[in-house]
Amino acid sequence: MSKISNQQSATNNQQFSWFASWFDTPYYHILYKERNYREAQIFMDNLTHYLNLPEKAKVLDLACGKGRHAIYLNQLGFDVIGADLSENSITEASNNTNSSLHFQVHDMREKFDDKFDAIFNLFTSFGYFENDNDNLKTLIAIKESLTEHGFAVIDFMNVNQVIANLVPEETKSVEGIDFHIKRFFKDGHIYKEIAFEDQGKSFHFTEKVQALTLQDFQNMMEKAGIYLLDIFGDYKLKKFHKTESERLIMIFK
Predict the structure, then answer these.
(1) What is the DSSP string of 139-184?
(2) Distance CA 109, CA 139 (A)
(3) DSSP for 62-110, written as a single string
(4) Whole-angstrom Cα distance, residue 85 to residue 73?
(5) Do 73 and 48 form a contact (C-beta atoms < 8 A)?
(6) CA dihedral 126, 132, 136, 139 (to 10 degrees)
(7) Neighbours of 13 (CB within 10 A)
(8) CA contacts within 13 A on the Cβ side of 178
(9) Cα torsion at 93, 95, 101, 103 (round to 10°)?
(10) Helix, strand, coil tally for the chain in percent (to 5)
(11) How far apart are alpha carbons 65 and 63 in whole angstroms?
């Protein structure tokens, strides 16, 4: 799970909960510093090749975070916009702006004025909303932001595989901080609770994402008038297997 809807409390330090969100804190980036970004770049190489995007195609990285993947897509030669709801993330990402790479604060439930040849929603950046109807609104907004010949991609976890292999508890030690992690499935959501101490303060964050299956997406896409064109199960674009695949990668328009 990546940019998950979050909740935070700081013991004896309530002011943290007013302005800090989990994925904007330095601790989020410390915990996940070992993520395999080379694998992610290979995924984008494979994806853009599969889609056969034209040179200088207009690409939207939707829920781009601090822009690492939008930057790589731009290096591949595309005209890229990275969009995210987090103002802090967009402020940092904007340091990389150039003539063919721009960033903006945007709510993914709202369509863009621009039209894109490809829209990428990568690394489980979907399913954070409390209201199920917001998922449908997001899909409709994506569809309405595509050019006539454009494609969209949602890269989600394969919840069947994740739930079957959920590690209930573990401790990860990174940069001298012991992150105590609990994972569980409840009420149609996958939760990850993260507790740790640093500089004499105690922190607790909760990641929460809806456990959406392929069937859930198919039902929403049918309501949105979306055509699901292809489904893959990993970043090498291998066939999707319901119980075995690590990812649920959907190509649609």
Answers:
(1) HHHHHHTEEEEEEEEEEEE-HHHHHHT---EEEEEETTEEEEEEEE
(2) 8
(3) ET-TTSHHHHHHHHTT-EEEEEES-HHHHHHHGGG-BTTEEEEE--TTS
(4) 20
(5) yes
(6) 0
(7) 12
(8) 5
(9) 40
(10) 30, 35, 35
(11) 6
Query: Which positions ≥6 away from 230 have C-beta within 8 Å?
Result: 250, 251
Tokens describing residue 53? 């995007």
- Helix H or strand E encompassing 127: none
pLDDT along the chain (253 residues), means of 10: 41 34 78 79 95 95 92 97 89 96 95 97 89 93 97 97 97 96 96 94 91 97 97 97 97 97
Q: Let me know: does 85 contact 106? Beta carbons within 8 Å.
A: yes
Cβ-based burial of 167 (10 A; exposed 0-12, middle 13-18, buried ≥19): exposed
